[in-house]
Amino acid sequence: MTKPLLSVQAISRKFGSLVAVNKVSFDVEEGAITSLIGPNGAGKSTVFNLLTGYVPLSSGRIEFRGERIDGLATQRIATLGIARAFQIARPFRGLSVRDNVKVGALFGRNGHRDVDETVDDALRLTGLQRLADSQAAGLSVGHLRKLELARAVAARPTLLLADEPLAGLVPTESEEILESFRALVARGTTVLLVEHDMVSVMKVSKRVVVVEAGEVIAEGTPAEVVSDPRVIEAYLGHEEIAR
After folding, report:
1. Of 13, 57, 68, 230, most Cβ neighbours within 10 A?
2. pTM of the full predicted structure?
């Protein structure tokens, strides 16, 4: 059996008496999109913070390519090949789109890179070529989402963590972002996606992990997950997610 690219083993995080994440376990298969879903406040972003070293584990273990990474500094995790596209884009507003993406290209996974070629590739993949010389401060919400993704792509990740990249986008913008994810997977990048848009999750995910109140309540293919009564209940009884 092939080992997973990422193995999350009973990870927990407590903030005082609050248990934000409680013994969460799941694997991320290489070369596919895995989605982490759940209602607001379920602990999804905290899981991302734990995976990238922004906050330490209270207990548990995280392995990437079979090696333990929990306890490593955020920048060290990035050099191993894990990049994150944040939910709220915070570009260098006074810099151009190209220069913002260049920041990502200067860091990220270890190994030789041609910075200009890496930047151009990230701009092409996200459809930002024509805006390369525009100032980030003037971008629309949709273009800011693409810029956040482009910066992460420029870090040349083996595993990309994308935190609600479709939030606030119109359908055409969402589809463009999804197409970028498909292109990334086609070239060998693995994606772990946090997203509320269940239609999009169904379109692109090979597996889905559902969390509620900091715990995993379901895991499987998209079709299996959206027909699970526990998942329907977690989404406030909106049975239309299964259709």
Report:
1. 13
2. 0.92
